[in-house]
Amino acid sequence: GNDREEFLKLCKRVEYTIRAWYHLQFDDMMELYALFDPVQGAKKLQQQNFSSEEIDTLEQNFLTYFFQVMEKSNFNILSDDEVELAHSGQYLLNLPIKVDEAKLDSKLLSKYFKEHHHDNLPEFCDKYVIFRRGIGLDRTSDFFFMEKVDMVITRTWRWLLQKTRLQRLFLRKKKVKPVIDSKKNDDLVGEGDDKELYIERIRLETMNLRPAQFNWQGCNSGAYI
User: For the segment 122-136, what is each residue's pLDDT rounded down to a tens digit?
Assistant: First the structure.
């Protein structure tokens, strides 16, 4: 009984110590952010009368705190493979998002990543970064009428080509090095060195369609990162 209570006290003290460290680091980060706040930051910099070199140092210090907090919070920088994987997904909500890179500073992050090495940085890391956290299950349920009709037409056309042997006309074309299309990769994507990038998709293209399947609800699911 006494050993259990003492152990619980030790756990709480360790927890309080970690929380205090995070709290102090977060306060330091927000204190630096106040100098670069889009609303009041410019006035504070003028009041402090910092030189350009000092401002650059403060910016890099803020980024150092920021990336440390994000890392301790289990956020990871999105890589090019993960961006491509996200773009390959088909969702009911397709809200276009575009970054106006002409208005972004390309020197700030470039200088930071030059001094702080990170693996698998995206090609746009000199202008901005995107963070992700955790994995989960992405599932879309619907009747998929148009998708099923399209699949029946595709398979019927493929069957006709095989029976009439017209497909040989298409196979006579010059062979080109195959390009991996993440949208049509139905099994596993990213099953390589990066073990965190893993996805398994269940698509209509790989299902055995039967007449009964046009009467009940279908499902398209996969893991997302």
Answer: 999 999 999 988 766
